[in-house]
Amino acid sequence: MRDGAKRSEEVLVFGLLGNPVGHSLSPKMHRAAFQAMGIEAEYVAFPVVNLEQAVTGIRGLGIRGASVTIPFKEEIISLMDKVDRVASVIGAVNTLVNDQGVLTGTNTDWLGLKRALESRISIRGRRVAILGAGGAARAAVYGVMAGGGEPILLNRTPQRAMRAARDLGCGWALWEGLGDLNAHVLVNATPAGMSPRGDECPVEPELLSRFHLVVDMVYNPLRTRLLEEAEARGVGTMNGVEMLVQQGAEQIRIWTGMEPPIQIMRKAVIEALGGEDED
Ligand code: NAP
Question: Is 267 a residue of the active site?
Fold first, then answer.
């Protein structure tokens, strides 16, 4: 256990800052992890009304760490005492660590995506088309670059893709140019297709056959229309579960300094989504 992370008989409190948070799987995933690790800890989903006051509350209540989700990943940066390099380059914090009153923001989404991709393919030298230009897309760019791949950003609003590409030092293309792009993998980092808009497909299905692997960061539903259309064309697919689990596992490592029970975390997420664990 990390220094100062546990005083005797004390229940550690971790949380999720977002709004809404009712549908988040993080509480189930992290509680399952803490239980399996024998750590006495609570993980509470906080629907944040005022972010600044919530961050003050973290200090005041001695909450040891938090996950940060929509819509606060960017806004929370200015409220941290420190932001590590990776989170500042990505421009989004999804993980907060409270080290005796000093709040540090970091990001584990990039590693979640990198590990998820690497569980299926080698990224090195491969071109990866990424749809979106928000925090998740920027994290994906960072993760692909860290794995030696070549990310290309495409966003509905091209100015955002251009800005993100400039910040991160990667290429970008017009949304309409997807059909001309020669890429190995397609990653959807937009919410298109997410429940309740499950029938939405972010791109023309006909374009999917040009990729070897189509990855959807969306995990609810487990099989989005994008993945169904890719599958129908014989293309490999991966939903957002593995990224979610891997980014959460990294949070557990950061908060506790211990190895997370990834299998148990994965099982908790898949069960909560009504799917069946393949392992
Ligand atoms: P965000 O900051 O709100 O960005 C959303 C992006 O999606 C924007 O670039 C937006 O384009 C684009 N977009 C929205 N609706 C679209 C549509 N119908 N068609 C095409 N583009 C659309 O969100 P985010 O934080 O980056 O998250 C994006 C998605 O990734 C969410 O679904 C989130 O749940 C998921 N995610 C999953 C994981 C995981 O662990 N699996 C982790 C992080 C995020 P404009 O700029 O044109 O508005």
Answer: no
Query: Does residue 275 contact residue 253 with C-beta atoms inside 8 Å?
Result: no
Burial class from Cβ neighbours inside 10 Å (0-12, 13-18, 19+) for residue 61 reads exposed
Same fold, 12-107+248-273 and 111-239: yes
244 within ligand 1 shell (Cβ under 6 A): yes
Joined tokens for residue 17: 């800052």
Residue for token pair 């980092």: 189
pLDDT band at 4 (very low <50, low <70, confident <90, very high): very low
Distance between Cα 194 and ligand 1 center (Å): 10
- The residue contributing the CA closest to ligand 1 atom 3 is 134
Fold classification of 12-107+248-273 (topology level) = Rossmann fold (3.40.50)
279 or 151: which carries more pLDDT confidence? 151
Q: Based on the number of CB atoms within 10 Å of its own CB, is 154 exposed (0-12), middle (13-18) or buried (19 or more)? A: buried
Q: Residues 28-72: pLDDT tens digits?
A: 999 999 999 999 999 999 999 999 999 999 999 999 999 999 999
Assign domain 111-239 to its CATH architecture. 3-Layer(aba) Sandwich (3.40)
Averaged pLDDT for residues 174-197: 95
- Return the best residue to mutate from 154, 156, 224 for the ligand 1 pocket (most ligand atoms within 8 A of CB): 156
End-to-end CA distance of the chain: 28
Given a contact cutoff of 8 angstroms between Cβ atoms, the answer to whether 252 and 33 are in contact is: yes
Distance CA 243, CA 118 (A): 11
pTM of model > 0.90: yes
Domain ranges of the chain: 12-107+248-273, 111-239
